[in-house]
Amino acid sequence: MNDRKPLSGADLIAGIVKGQVPRQVRLFAAQGLLPISREELLSLQCVLSSDPNEELASVAAESVRGEELSTILDWLRDHPPESIVLDQLIRVRDEEAVWALVAGHSNVSDETLRVIAKNASPMVQDIIITNQVRLLGCLEILDDLRANPQVNQVVLRRIREFEEEFIEKVLAEEEAAARAGPSVEDAIEALHAIGAHIPKETSMPYPLTEDEELEDAIRKAGKSVHSKLLTMSVHERIICALRGTREERSLLINSRNRLIQRSVLACPKLSDGEIEQFAASRSIAQEVIKLIAANTRWLRQYPIMSALAMNPKTPVYTAKSILPRLNLRDKMRVSRDRNLPPVTRKIAEKLLDTRR
């Protein structure tokens, strides 16, 4: 007598991720022929859509695509799938209604949410930007939303408002506790390890977590003691930007993450000398230059103002308002600097002609 307990859908998914389920069983699941519940079968088919066997993966993906939209939505609402299932589902079903439910799902991983943020419609973006708990747990989502070709001005404004509020809370010692979402990274790596083909991975890649600009700045500065910055989360780098040393700020300002840049500039210990260095740096992000130029207190400092005028990354409309306030020598330097935009040099030349 066989008392072995039949495998559940979760057991089969775990076995598939580890490459331990025979092809014939995987094929039956892909075709919808296993004697398990419809919900478990849907979960299996989602995971099998990235099976190493492309023919089997195609069968599984077509099975999921063939389901009625209402069935998929009811399944998401009433039978919470695992994180890896949700990740594979958005790669097979790209309807806005599906993505909207996955984006707000309690089981969605940070990795999957970042993919959605970078590719979703404005309606789904709005769902993401209003979930502040998840944003606090994965601040990289803000940059992913910005990088979305469909992002609109409303979402961009709400991103800025969130960043400002977040920085203010940290400065006031009222930080919200960051809650990390369930991670699906290990399961994804396991799928890759067995030769899985993630649907649409080329057109919808998982966003990078590395900060190459910060890594490059640390390498060029030769500050190996600060390599710890590379192992920090975005949240930890923000705290460091607000409370760290001058050397740490000089490195963190090079981060590509705008929230980290803004945190450096919001640091209470930041000196005018540091601002002058940032304003003069030609390797710094233009966003930092714009933030400095928008601060009227800093613009009252002549060294900062002249450094901005001589930085090629300073927008022409900003340079135009600064140039009349420069002394004759600095106007001449601007007019002769071939690295500056031609329009900026032309404005300086006209001011010099008027002076003569």
What would you say this structure looks like, in words?
By secondary structure, the chain is mainly α. Among the domains are: 7-109 and 182-199, no CATH class; 271-356. The protein contains 25 helices and no strands. It has helices spanning 9-17, 23-31, 38-48, 54-65, 69-78, 83-92, 96-103, 110-119, 122-129, 132-137, 140-147, 153-171, 185-193, 212-221, 228-231, 234-243, 246-252, 258-266, 272-280, 286-293, 296-299, 302-309, 316-322, 328-336, 342-355. Helix 3 packs across helix 4 (54-65), helix 5 runs parallel beside helix 7 (96-103) and helix 24 (328-336) runs antiparallel to helix 25. It is elongated.
Provide a quick synopsis of the model.
The protein has 356 residues and is mostly helical. The chain is 64% helix and 0% strand.
